[in-house]
Amino acid sequence: MFTTRPELLGTFGAVASTHWLGTAAGMSMLERGGNAFDAGIATAFVLQVVEPHLVGPAGDAPVIVHSAKTGKTEVICGQAPAPAGATIEHYTREGLTLIPGNGLLATVIPGSFDAWMLLLRDHGTMSVREVLEPAIFYAEKGHPVLPRVAATIAGLKTFFETEWPTSAAALLPNGAAPEPWSLFKNPALAATWTRIIQEAEAAGSDRETQIEAARAAFYKGFVAEAIDAFVSRAEVMDESGSRHKGVITAQDLAGWQAGYEAPLTYEYGGQTVNKIAPWGQGPVFLQTLALLKGFDLDATEAAGAEFIHLLTEAMKLAFADREAYYGDPNFVDVPVEALLSDAYNDKRRKLISDRASFDLRPGRVAGYEAQVDRMMAVLDRLSTTEAVGATNEPTTAAMQSARRGDTVHVDAVDRWGNMMAAMPSGGWLQSSPAIPELGFMLNSRAQMFWLEPDLPTSLAPGKRPRTTLTPTLTTRDGEPYMAFGSPGGDQQEQWQLLLFLRAVHHKLNLQEAIDLPMSHSTHFPGSFYPRNRRPGHLIAEESFGSAVLQDLRRRGHDLEVAPEWTIGRLVAVARENDGLMRAAATPRLMQAYAIAR
Fold first, then answer.
1. In whole angstroms, what is the distance from residue 190 CA to residue 315 CA?
2. Do 195 and 217 contact (CB within 8 A), yes or no?
3. 584: phi then psi, degrees, rounded to nearest 5
4. Radius of gyration, CA atoms only, the chain
5. Dihedral through CA 125, CA 130, CA 131, CA 136, nearest 10?
6. Which pLDDT tens digit goes with each residue over 166-198?
7. Are residues 510 and 587 in contact, defined by beta-carbon separation less than 8 angstroms?
8. Segment (H or E) for 115
């Protein structure tokens, strides 16, 4: 089939990400003798500079890695938890019923920096300086600002000037938003990373010693001190319509480190699919596969109504279970084994008919019935409440600040058989005010928590929010095969499933699967403030064609037609057992890029 660009092939290495400058930086690490992990780390730091509306240094990053040296596939959890002061009682005393989508109360401990340093120490080969230098260059010398970044800043100009003056100073050079494609700099961020390198190198010449010193500089040194000082004195407007102080402290940062976990896995189509645990939405992907394995998807068309209908209806069931069961396994007993079992999914599969469902239908796992009922009661109450998040109506200024951030993605594979997939996000320029001494913002991941007690995702100190971040890495016969992902919040799994199932059942290559028309649903409650839900909704690109779209309407879907090339931001790499590597990136938004040679 015709594709917008070729699927790239090579035997040396491959990198794919959501921005061409990030991908180029990653490939430069491979060219200099680094491995896939060095490449992914350098890419991720560049993305913090060139896609600041989607990711920042104080964000989070779940990473799935396969090491050729150990033969193991592991998850690095770069999703840090809520601060010690983040209690339901404190937030409700502030007059809140939902955690705002921005501002200082929405932040959890920054997780991504420690995750990258842990990956670099244990699996990389390069120094802190080497992986940070490309990002420092673009922050200091400037990069061509994306039109979407420029538009986001322009839309927040008045709000920044009125409510978040530190962001105005950092993002409005000469008092104006940057013009699209003009050079845009972040000298304060460049200085922060340069100081981290200096402190790392002052600790000694050993690579591991330098990495540990960099971790300490961020979580126990000048970065943590600057965060503490800023939060302790700032009281800022957020989406609730009121001003609030944050609760995060230097002590919170000092008490946390990224760590390793075993991935959740499911066998499908000759591959082992590796996902993160239910502190994220990764199991949704696996549950959907467990439901779909009872259908003959080989007989469907990759852009046909039957395929899209079955996938959408299966995802509705899996996402309903996400709401009822998922949470941080350190705090919540999540019945993952039952949710992925044949017995459970054989029963659930019978709910899928030839008509679109408009109901939110979580399953009933024995022993969890009361929990499911509590969650459904909260969702029912939310759906009938007009004013959410505060006791007063949001102000004009607060509404001006309601600019959703998103996510970026990084995949890398090398000639030795190392592979990684990472979904960095958070710390967007619109998430909270800029910290002047550091050149970056805190994250807003705490908005995933509920302020209702006794739910799987109820707010609690030290608890991880149920993130939407969900990279995917598959293996075949113990060897790494595919790494892929897409930004998109609640849509991440939906678009990734389209890619994966089209590759497995319709035998499409990566670029073909990415270029075909895309779709997703907002049938289930959103993970972000104010957690809206649109029952029965399905949005599909007009490039599906009138016959397919009409068929989906006939099946009862509340269909919204989107312009072609507007849904999904997938990127992917793959490696065959003989060493041939493949890479692809979406043409949508005209910025994602893949390189392979």
1. 42
2. yes
3. -155, 155
4. 23
5. 170
6. 999 999 999 999 999 999 999 999 999 999 999
7. no
8. helix 112-123
